[in-house]
Specification:
By secondary structure, the protein is an all-alpha fold. It has a domain of 48 residues. Helix content is 80%, strand content 0%. The chain is built from 7 helices and no strands. The radius of gyration is 52 Å and the shape is rod-shaped. The termini are far apart.
């Protein structure tokens, strides 16, 4: 029955082709009939398992299920690609941050080395264990002392009372305690 069905399908195909042909119908018909005979000979040698039409229905259901699975996989693939893109962007931002922090660390290391050199020069101890501090400017030694400035004030008694009040205040005691 399958062979007869295939033969009838091929005959209808040949007829549809011949209807469209205007010239050389005989040659085309001979050629198509030869092809049909060859195909039918091959079909006769094929062994087809006997089956029921319910298997064809199962194939259709299986095909629909596979299409649904393919659509779900494509959706999951798109989501996965988006997540990968986000992860790449995040990794790039993290890498940029790391590079920036490494640069900042290098700059701070250089500054620290410079400060350490300055500190060594400033606090260099010699054989006598004396600190070699820079000299004070001469103008600071010639500046008037606090006592001389107080003597220049006209209202010295009021100034002394204000200073006494400041020294006895709670804030001053807290600062001295600290």
């Amino acid at each position: 029955s399958s062979r007869k069905f295939l033969e009838s399908v091929m005959d209808s195909g040949i007829l549809s082709i011949l209807c469209q042909q205007n010239k050389g119908k005989e040659d085309v018909q001979k050629h198509l009939n030869l092809l049909k005979e060859r195909v039918l000979r091959v079909f006769k040698t094929l062994k087809v398992p006997s089956g029921k039409l319910s298997n064809l229905n199962n194939v259709l259901r299986f095909q629909v299920a596979q299409k649904q699975m393919l659509e779900m996989n494509e959706t999951a693939l798109v989501q996965l690609q988006e997540e990968i893109n986000e992860a790449e962007k995040s990794a790039e931002r993290t890498e940029e941050t790391i590079l920036r922090l490494q640069h900042d660390i290098q700059v701070l290391k250089i500054q620290l080395e410079e400060e350490e050199k300055k500190a060594r020069k400033l606090f260099r101890e010699g054989d006598t264990k004396e600190l070699h501090l820079p000299e004070l400017p001469k103008c600071s030694l010639q500046a008037p002392t606090l006592q001389e400035e107080i003597l220049m004030v006209e209202n010295q008694k009021g100034l002394l009372e204000d200073m006494n009040t400041i020294q006895q205040s709670a804030d001053m005691r807290n600062m001295l305690t600290f």
